[in-house]
C-alpha cells in the first residue's frame, strides 16, 4: 500500500552547510498493518512524514529515493493530485492539534469543510450526521456544545480527539500519526491509543511516529528505529522489545523506567509518603 525506498534528504544549518536529515530510509506498510517510527528529536521522523504527505518544505532538499502509494509515485504526481490524496487517502494527525485546527473558526464549520471537500456527495444533513457519529465514536460528550465552540473553549484532550476526527472523517486508507500523544497526560494518551487501535482495522493502516518504544510496541506490529536520519533497527515489535536489536535501541529500552511496562501500567501506590495533603 505504502512504500518508501532509499529516501535521503538534507537541510541547511545556520551557517549554510548541508546537514543530512534522512539517509537511505526504506519502509513498507501493508494493508491493515501498523508500523511504528521511533526516534529522538531531530532523528528525521517528521521530515519522513512530510515527505510521504507530499508537503513541500523549502528548507528540506530530497536527494534521492522514491515514495509510492497505491501504485502512484508521489514525487512525480501533480500538486493537485497530492492534495487530493491528502485527507481522502492519507490522513494525518500532528503532535499539536492546533496544526490541524484553525483557532478563529468554530469547530463545526471546520469539520463540515473537511466533509464537503472530500465527500461532496453528502448533503449538509448527512454531513452533520457523519460528524456527530464520529465524535461519539471518539468518546466525546455534549457534542452540540463542542460543535458550537471555538478551539480554545475545549480541553486539550478533547481538541486532540477532534483532530483525530478531522483525519478520520474522510475514511483514509492510511493514517499518519506524528507524535500525536506526546503532549497528553497518560490517561488521555491511553484513550487516544485505544481510538487508533479501533480505527485502524483490517482495511486501514497506521504509521505511528513516537519517541516511546514501549508505546509503539503496544500498538504496532512492526517498528523502525531512527538515529540521526538512519535506520538502526527494523522488524517485528515483539522481537525488538525482547532485545534483538542494536546497542542504540537497547540503550533506549534500558532508559525506560522499570515500571513503564508494555501494558502501560504505572507503579503501584507508594506506602511511604514524602508529601501528604488533606482538606485543601
UniProtKB/TrEMBL annotation:
<dbReference type="Pfam" id="PF00005">
    <property type="entry name" value="ABC_tran"/>
</dbReference>
<dbReference type="InterPro" id="IPR003593">
    <property type="entry name" value="AAA+_ATPase"/>
</dbReference>
<feature type="domain" description="ABC transporter">
    <location>
        <begin position="2"/>
        <end position="253"/>
    </location>
</feature>
<keyword id="KW-0472">Membrane</keyword>
<dbReference type="InterPro" id="IPR017871">
    <property type="entry name" value="ABC_transporter-like_CS"/>
</dbReference>
<dbReference type="InterPro" id="IPR050388">
    <property type="entry name" value="ABC_Ni/Peptide_Import"/>
</dbReference>
<comment type="similarity">
    <text>Belongs to the ABC transporter superfamily.</text>
</comment>
<dbReference type="GO" id="GO:0016887">
    <property type="term" value="F:ATP hydrolysis activity"/>
</dbReference>
<dbReference type="GO" id="GO:0005524">
    <property type="term" value="F:ATP binding"/>
</dbReference>
<keyword id="KW-0547">Nucleotide-binding</keyword>
<keyword id="KW-0813">Transport</keyword>
<dbReference type="GO" id="GO:0005886">
    <property type="term" value="C:plasma membrane"/>
</dbReference>
<dbReference type="InterPro" id="IPR027417">
    <property type="entry name" value="P-loop_NTPase"/>
</dbReference>
<dbReference type="InterPro" id="IPR003439">
    <property type="entry name" value="ABC_transporter-like_ATP-bd"/>
</dbReference>
<keyword id="KW-1003">Cell membrane</keyword>
<protein>
    <recommendedName>
        <fullName>ABC transporter domain-containing protein</fullName>
    </recommendedName>
</protein>
<keyword id="KW-0067">ATP-binding</keyword>
